[in-house]
Amino acid sequence: GKIVLFCCQLPDPRLRKNVKHGRRLLTTKRILQPELAQAIVSSMPNGGVIYISSDYKEVAMEMKTTLEKHHQLERMNSSQDYSKLLILLKHPYKKNKIKADANGWILANPFRLPTEREHFLHLKGDRNVFRVAYVSCFYGPLSFLVLSFLFVLSFLLVPVSSFSSFSCVRDRFN
C-alpha cells in the first residue's frame, strides 16, 4: 500500500556520555537515514505528508536535510498546506490554525496530541521542539515531459504582435 502520512516525532537522539567531561554528546546514528527516507518517499502518493520533530535542533536539521534531498517533497509553508496535518481531528475548527516561525519551524504540535516527551518538555520549559512537514508532489518523468512540451508550445502559439507592449525593452537591447 501507499504511505499517506509518516511521522517521526522526537526520536531518541542517541546520546552517549562523554567520559572525559561528564556530559552527553549526540552520536551520528539517526533513525531517518537516507535509505529509509527514499523508501518512504517512493511509497507515497501525491499529497502524502511527512512530519518530523525533535527537541534537539541538530537532529531536526539532519532530518530536514535528509528529506530536502528528495525533489518530490515540498516543505509545507502555508496554512492551506498545514491543514493536511489536521487529519486526526474530527472537526478542524478555525481556531486550529497551524503557524510557523520565520525559519519555517512549526510552532505547535499540529495533531493537538502531545507526545509524552513534548508534555515533559512543556512542564520543564527549557527546550523548544523543532517541527517541519513536507508534502509529496511527485509528477514523474512523463509529466515533466508533458509540462515541458506545453511550455515550449505556449511560446510558439503566442502571436508576435502581443510583444509590442514590450517595445521599450526590445529597443533598449537592440
Concise structural overview:
The chain is α+β, with helices and mostly antiparallel strands.
Strand order of the largest sheet: 1-4-6-5
> What is the element string, with H for helices and E for strands?
EEEHEHEHHEHH
Q: For the terminal residues, how far apart are their CA atoms?
A: 58 Å
What's the helix count?
6
Biggest β-sheet: count, sense, barrel?
Answer: 4 strands, mixed
Structural description of this entry:
The chain is an alpha+beta fold and 174 residues long. It has six helices and six strands; from the N terminus they run βββαβαβααβαα. It has helices spanning 34-42, 57-68, 79-82, 116-124, 140-157, 167-173, and strands spanning 5-9, 15-18, 23-26, 49-54, 73-75, 130-136. A four-stranded mixed beta sheet has the order 1-4-6-5, with helices on one face. The longest helix is centred in the last third of the chain and has 18 residues, at 140-157. It is globular and about 70 Å long.
